[in-house]
Design a protein that fits this description.
Structural class: mainly alpha
Shape: globular
Distance between the termini: 45 Å
Helix content: 40-55%
Number of helices: 3
Number of strands: 0
Strand content: under 5%
Largest sheet: none
Order of helices and strands: HHH
Length: 81
């Protein structure tokens, strides 16, 4: 069985506010209700959530409700749509 080191990976740098918003959404969303066109999409979202928990270098798991709200405001303020 291949180890994680054998699996091709992609590194993505996120603003901390984006990471907080995404992690909060992933943790509060029932992935069974997210519209998907292929089961791999649901698995990829679950994997993303797992990676946030695993990385923990930006402490997104320990954010207070106030920090989440502040991150949401930060991310939303520059929305162009």
């Amino acid at each position: 069985m291949a180890g994680d080191d054998d699996i091709p990976t992609v590194n993505i740098r996120l603003w901390r506010a984006d990471a907080i918003v995404l992690f909060d959404w992933l943790m509060s969303t029932d992935l069974n209700t997210v519209p998907i066109t292929h089961p791999a999409q649901k698995q990829a979202l679950a994997d993303l959530c797992d990676r946030f928990e695993w990385a923990c270098d930006c402490n997104v798991m320990e954010c207070s409700e106030e920090e989440v709200a502040a991150a949401q405001e930060e991310v939303a303020k520059d929305m162009g749509w």
